[in-house]
Amino acid sequence: MQRRLVVTLAILAIASTAVTGCKKKSEEQVTPPQSKVSSATSPAAKEPAPSATGLTGEQLFKQHCAVCHPNGGNTITPAKPLGAKAMAERSKITKPEDIVKVMRTPGPGMTKFDEGMISNDDAKKIGQYILATFP
């Protein structure tokens, strides 16, 4: 039992480090160079529009979610995979907005993805990708 707890904590530490590392890397990669030009030409535009990342749902999923949910699975809680049918039966998750709610206020073991980390438009793209990809 104690060994299992140690292994679980080690996995959480590794996953946490990976997610944090991805976040820093993604902020550097995703910010388009024209955002500086935009703010210079339009004083009201300080950051690109929420969907200005230009990334697909698949790319966003790989960047933010795949560490803990490879191929729609769940490394933290294996009994809770991302399959659309399983999520609908287990948690009444049937649309992208439901997935966004979970991302914003997750349960134990899942990283919270607030609007500062993932815009609502990008979070919705992730939700659409999950429902379309994992049956």
UniProtKB/TrEMBL annotation:
Keywords: Electron transport, Heme, Iron, Metal-binding, Signal, Thylakoid, Transport
SUPFAM superfamilies per record: Cytochrome c (SSF46626)
Ranges for region Disordered: 22-56
Start and end residues of each Cytochrome c domain: 52-134
Example GO molecular function: heme binding
One Gene Ontology term, aspect cellular component: plasma membrane-derived thylakoid lumen
Signal peptide: 1-20
Domain of life: Bacteria
Matches recorded under InterPro entries: Cyt_c-like_dom, Cyt_c-like_dom_sf, Cyt_C6
Major location category of this protein: other
Name of the featured protein: Cytochrome C
